[in-house]
What does this fold into?
Amino acid sequence: MKRTLYPAAILFFLALISTSHVQAQTCTVTFQADFRGVEVNDPGTIGIRGSKAPLDWNKTMPMQDADKDGVYTLTVSFDNCKAGEPLQYKFIHSEDGWENDLLGPMGNREVTLVDGAQKTPVQQYDKLETFSTSVLLERSDLDNFYSVIFTIGTGKKRGLSTDAIAKEYYDFWHSGGTNDWPPDPQAMMLEARIGQATSNGTFDVLEDKPGMVKYRISKVWDKYFGDRTDIKGVTKADINAVWKNLVKLRVESKGWTMNWNEDKETVEITINAQPSDK
It folds into this structure.
């Protein structure tokens, strides 16, 4: 049986990091940086910066070489962490001696936090063995975001409304397909969870029963606007309107109903495949 396949951009529209309600933990990491052969004017400036407190991208936490072998270490405790949470970091010396500097954020190192203590391998300064998974996902998500900006922006330049843009997008990806997907509201909720996962958003199941789901997700595109009111003439409201209409079109194509409630940061979506009592 043929199913319609959805590209990454439409998963962005339909936006899994599920907000797991786990007890706060303390995660301890011992970092090890090999500075042998690195020209450093002041060894006292050797340290680490990172994405989660007490690490900071703007302030160095010093590392020590107790046995003078050129390998600097530091043990850091992270309170209120979640096992499985990624931590990005970089080694540095002086104020501007960032490792992997030409790579920018792509040069960040990453460790996955665990409940309790762990030690990273000895890692050579300015030599990156693997790329950060979360950075690669963010890069992919950013590419998807600008694909959405292009789709909406070119539609607006042709004088289309957000309703018309959503319809055009929907018709393009559904032409030649069958109407067997999604088979139930749960499948659409799963797509939303995947969209939130790849966009580092949030997801909460509010209700899940046969033929009906209700869930809350975040407006994951807002983070890319920053202080800007629009990008290439496309606003947050434009993306929100197209996304809402895409979901509505898919729901109505199945003969289901949808309820959409939103605030500044999140959206609650109810999808019901059951006949109305009216």
User: Anything to note?
Assistant: DSSP finds six helices and 13 strands in the chain.
